[in-house]
Amino acid sequence: MALILYLTQIQLDFGAVRLLPQECARVGIKRPLVVSDAGIKAAGVLAQALQPLAQLPYAVFDQTPSNPTEAAVRAATELFKGHRCDGLVAVGGGSSIDLAKGVAIAATHDGPLATYATIEGGSAKITERVAPLIAVPTTAGTGSEVARGAIVIVDDGRKLGFHSWHLLPKAAICDPELTLGLPPLLTAATGMDAIAHCMETFMAPAVNPPADGIALDGLERGWAHLEAAVRDGANREARWHMMSASMQGAMAFQKGLGCVHSLSHSLGGVNPKLHHGTLNALFLPAVLRFNASAGSIIKERRLARLAHAMGLPGCDDAGDTIAEAIRAKNAALGLPGGLAALGVTPDLFERVIDGAMADHCHKTNPRLATREDYRAMLEASM
Questions:
Q1: What is the distance between the alpha carbons of residues 129 and 109, in angstroms, rounded to a whole number?
Q2: Which residues does 117 contact at the CB level (< 8 Å), separation at least 6?
Q3: Residue 279 near residue 263 (C-beta atoms within 8 A)
Q4: Are the beta carbons of 79 and 59 closer than 8 angstroms?
Q5: For 318-327, which contacts have Cβ atoms below 8 Å and span 24 or more sequence positions?
Q6: Which phi-psi region, left, alpha or beta, contains residue 4 (left: φ > 0; alpha: ψ -120 to 50)?
Q7: Which domains does the chain have, with CATH numbers?
């Protein structure tokens, strides 16, 4: 039986951040901890987002690492408790939002964070006690503002997923104004993250027709407008469509992801300096070719429907066509040509494969990958 749940309250438009006090009042947050990062603060985006909150007492944690860690969750949780906060406002990209979700658990639940990881059977241990969260994304990529999950590197070095409907932000304030100053390369990497979400969730075999429709529409928007957003960061139309594509990708991936994410999660855990969106962009072509022979992909003409949304020739056997289009898009955006350009070496493969096989996205791929399959995908992505 298909379980279909949608989702949270979303404000999407230029100037939406002005609604932040209203949303805090609606969900009962009176003393928020604001979670952000040093880059957002230095760029002036944090001050811009927090201006409407001037009448509320709030504390700020602005040391979110590029890949959230359990140590950072602990530090932010101490600040949360020390200032007697009653909720969270995350201002930033997926890292800040995911860190805030980690704090939402840690501030209200006992024990190490890994206790609540999905692959440890921890999802059911996350209860309604979690601290309420409002998410204000400043990038258009992860869509974490409308997702029930978070990715955190725990103390033993594993990059784990945490999933519960209780973690879903109580409100998402999607203001494209906050993305206008995003640098071109970060715009490209986060944009390809959104595109990867739309593509991979559409290929996932779970039954969720609304998610499929949302993913295809998000892919069409992202594919059509990403290059314009990279060329001209002040292009308001392109920024609006990318913000929507990002949000839609995460609305859709409630049905599951696949090998792109099991590989990028694992490699990102091995080397936390690597950007998640960039890794997704580099893994997409190899995974698309691997998925092309999956029964559900063939039966439901999934590749042809992806190609149509991308404006490509719509033949049923479109795996190579789409894969090459993605490689060309990555090059046009200025992204690296392969993993080797990021310093990844074959001696890391076994560790990456170990993590991919254990990742929560591994079993939701339309075709179950073996260790040898993952090794081939890594080699093809170099």
A1: 8
A2: 154, 160, 161, 162
A3: yes
A4: yes
A5: 319/288, 319/289, 319/291, 319/292, 320/289, 322/288, 323/284, 323/285, 323/286, 323/288, 323/289, 324/285, 326/281, 326/284, 326/285, 326/288, 327/285
A6: beta
A7: 9-178 (3.40.50.1970), 183-380 (1.20.1090.10)
What is the arrangement of strands in the sheet containing 133-137, beginning at the earlier edge strand?
A: 9-12, 171-174, 133-137, 87-92, 32-35, 59-61
| Closest by CA position to 134, among listed 95, 181, 89 | 89
Cα dist from 344 to 263, 272, 316, 382, whole Å:
13, 12, 34, 8
Q: Is-contact 134 24, C-beta < 8 A?
A: yes
* H or E segment to which residue 152 belongs: strand 149-153
- Residue 335: CB atoms within 10 A of its CB come to 22
Q: Which residue has the tokens 């060309």?
A: 328
pLDDT digits (tens, 9 = 90+) for 260-277: 999 999 999 899 889 999
Residue found under tokens 């469509």? 241
Q: Tokens at residue 204, please?
A: 């996932």
- Sequence-ordered list of residues with C-beta below 8 angstroms from that of 39, at least 6 positions apart, any chain: none
Question: Which tokens is 64 given?
Answer: 């979110």
Residues 148/163, Cβ–Cβ less than 8 Å: yes
Which pLDDT tens digit goes with each residue over 86-139?
A: 999 999 998 999 999 999 999 999 999 999 999 899 999 999 999 999 999 999
Total number of residues shown for the chain: 382
Three-state DSSP at 89 gives strand
Could you report the per-residue pLDDT of 187-213, keeping only the tens digit for each? 999 999 999 999 999 999 999 999 999
